[in-house]
Records
---
Amino acid sequence: MTKTGYLIDMDGVIYRENQLIPGAREFVDALQAMGFPFLFLTNNSAPTPEDLAVRLNHLGIQGISPRQFYTSALNTADFLGETHPGCTVFVIGEGGLLTALHEHRIASDAIRPSYVVVGEGSVSMERLGKAHECLERGARLLATNPDNWCPVGAEKTRPGAGATAAFLEASSGRRAYYLGKPNGYMFHRARQKLQELALGPVGQVAMIGDTMETDIRGAVEAGMYGYLVLSGSTALENVADYVYQPTRILQSVADLTEEVLTGKASDRLNSPVFAGEGPAISRPGHRHQTDVFAFHKPRPRPAMTK
Ligand SMILES: [Mg+2]
């Protein structure tokens, strides 16, 4: 019998603000003990898989290989390697993205690159200016992920790659293409990686995440189960805002440990959204973390580019 494969988001699912979410270690231990194939799937394109393995190790989750991480930076490098071998890039991003592109032998080019690639991380106005010039000379705009903002704490957020890409969309009048979750290419490649780890076919795949617009939307569109955990950025009262719905809603991954160990799902894990009336509609104007279709700012091309 083929086993269920798990794709596990990290921030808000495994840890929050450098704190392990209670029960996360036991859940990962259970997956390893029972031999379920699993992959950590993150839209953060700044770290390398090695960085992430070290980070989990410091948090107390041991025995994870760098092969068990798939980031939006790896997804972007896979995409360019597959669709445009020999292309060149101007990169706004950090080590994880630069390393992934380097491993695919994709060269940097600040003069006439095929793409401007935008990832997570800090950016200077000078770098943005150079990227803008590359776009004006015909480069295409690609972002590792669509997150406009990312949580750094309970009360604090930082601008994400989506916001940087939006800056360049406004200045150049070009639309960016967004990889990472919820893009189907991220889930397609993640499923392939799960099969490589499992050394064979994987049965049903369950994506466990805390963000509706990326984790759950992507899972629904890729034909996977979407398990929403409430240990991160989504509150139960906001779930009913969305057209796409999770297969299940859990307090945290701790709710899954017994099921992984015994193979039996319990009723309390069923999504409350499908039982009775579901949660009330929340206040209007709730700001979604990522919504690539939420705005469109066309800008006339400047006269100098005809
Ligand atoms: Mg998350």
---
Amino acid sequence: MVPQASTDSSAPAEAFWHAVRSGWLPLRQCASCGVSFVVPLPACPSCAGADLVVTKARGTGTVYSWVVAHHAFDPVLADAVPYIAALINLDEGARVYARLVDVADRDLVAGLPVQWSASASRVADRPLLVFRPTQPTEQR
Ligand SMILES: [Zn+2]
């Protein structure tokens, strides 16, 4: 469960990564049960409903949890180790896995306010969700 560079070529995934490359973060909300999620699934992960409304996420949230990866799960991140893989709670209620940058390990705390970075969400021409603190931390 780490931030994944785009390798899924399904239609929902293609549309999702196209949006990310275009500079906006899609948020899916189930019309049946109201659950919001970011992962480009073709149906709701809660009720399996297929009536999904895609909106533009604000891209702000807080850190829920994280790990410091010392081995790249994907070759495109080989030069980035060690890097932080974090679970981010978006303000809209969805939770997403992403890479977290511009924060020192010692400054990481649960609840740290973060913002999605459209410009940083690209590694080697493959999009990758990247968040950074909304306010600079003591050490970068
Ligand atoms: Zn649902």
